[in-house]
Amino acid sequence: MSQKQEPRRKPGRPKAGTDQPDARDAILDQAEFCFAAAGFAGASLRDIATRAGVNQALLRYYFGSKQDLFDAVFRRRGGMISGRRHVLLDRALAEAEPTVETLVRAYLRPQWEMKQSGPGGAAFIALQARVHAEPEAHALDLRREVYDPSLKRYIDALSGLLPAIPRDLVATRMAFLVGAYLFMLNDLGRLADLSEGQIREIPPDDMLEQLVRFLSAGLLAPAI
Fold first, then answer.
1. Which residue of 32, 83, 202, 212 sits 20 to 30 Å from the alpha carbon of 16, by its own alpha carbon?
2. pLDDT tens-digit profile of 103-115?
3. Is the pTM of this model over 0.85?
4. Using CA atoms, how far apart are residues 11 and 28, in angstroms rounded to an integer?
């Protein structure tokens, strides 16, 4: 009597019942560090697999291509930031009289929380800066997918608070806001140089409040 043969598995596919969610998380964690340090082109699947303690076949099983892995890394924490923005906007709009500063603070805070959340969060902020500086269509589509739903809600909410300013101008000013906060969030402000050494570092919460005041004033400026 012949024995029943086990179905042949695809290359890299774990045996039934051996899938480990922890392995998937480990891959995402280590890919985040590699992509943040070396960029998409410089990070290798071999290095990511080695750091995660898995073979490349398992990495490909979970995520497919290198691009698919990169996108999964970006969506994971980018989705957390966008989701947090939705929550904070709902809270702000529930106030009796929300202000422009309240909405700007709600929009910016999740990024500061992410950077201060630990090495992984800080790595993602560095990775995010790379994606925002990347002009390729795929990077732009990824940013749109992850961030535009929450960003457009803020534009709508700010337009409601600023009836004298056309919505398209509010949207333009929000683009300015995104550029300014990403620059400062990634420590590119050259504070020591421009202050002739008087300011070398601003504590994160102080930096956030300085930006909230500065960027809110820009949104509130009269239309020309």
1. 32
2. 999 999 999 999 9
3. yes
4. 21
